[in-house]
Design goal:
The protein has 11 helices and 6 strands. With 221 residues, the protein is an alpha/beta fold. The protein has a single domain, classed as P-loop containing nucleotide triphosphate hydrolases (Rossmann fold). It has a 6-stranded mixed beta sheet, with helices on both faces. β3 and β4 form a beta hairpin.
């Protein structure tokens, strides 16, 4: 797992991409967005990401991406990670569980309606809310229509079964979530995941100290 953290930290720190590839992460909606369908990441980074497959307690399929505060690059790291896995042939599903400040619909320029909120409220089925992207093997479930009480949505009795359905549908399910220190949404989801990835801004978060998350802390998340 130590190598896993190093790989994820490297992804967060070194997610520079070419001008053409960066258009997929442009927050401004475009009528005809450019998505790099032939996105390529070095074989070394792909190998580091797939260290997750050798987890001693079994294959990890669900990961929650969170941070301590807003603006630490949570969604960017999640997307880079998802594209890396998809480019290696795995089927990947990104889920925008950040109902407070959703971004995946903008990043992929797709409608956020009929998304995670509607799924948990049982207004739509899983097949209804999965949206394909122009990147092979990569699909998205957007946040859905804004809800007046986002946390109540996570109290859905169907949440556990829906996560199991997602796991059966694809190789990886990656959840984007709000800052873990700001809302209870992330902690509720974290308890149901195979693992949690905390995005930490070097020299800013944790009193501007560069720190690595020990394995025993990771297991407590």
């Amino acid at each position: 797992m130590a190598k896993t953290f190093e790989a994820l930290k490297k992804a967060e720190k070194e997610h520079q991409i070419s001008p053409e590839e960066s258009k997929v992460f442009d927050l401004k909606p475009k009528p005809k967005p450019y998505i790099p369908v032939d996105f390529r990441i070095s074989s070394q980074i792909i190998e580091e990401y797939h260290i997750l497959n050798s987890h001693p307690e079994g294959k990890i399929k669900t990961l929650l991406f969170s941070s301590s505060t807003e603006g630490e690059g949570n969604s960017t790291v999640l997307i880079n990670f998802g594209i890396t896995l998809a480019s290696g042939g795995d089927k990947v599903l990104l889920v925008d569980a950040n109902l407070r400040n959703p971004t995946l619909h903008d990043l992929f320029t797709i409608d956020k309606k009929s998304g995670f909120t509607e799924l948990l409220l049982e207004k739509n089925t899983l097949n209804d809310v999965i949206k394909k992207t122009q990147i092979k093997n990569l699909s998205v479930i957007t946040s859905g229509i804004p809800h007046s009480n986002p946390f109540s949505v996570f109290e859905s009795k169907s949440l556990d079964s829906l996560i199991e359905q997602m796991k059966a549908h694809t190789d990886w399910v990656l959840f984007d979530s709000p800052p873990i220190n700001s809302y209870n949404d992330s902690s509720t989801l974290a308890a149901k995941m195979d693992g949690v990835v905390m995005i930490v801004h070097a020299e800013k978060t944790l009193n501007r100290r560069k720190m690595y998350i020990p394995r025993w802390i990771y297991k407590m998340l």
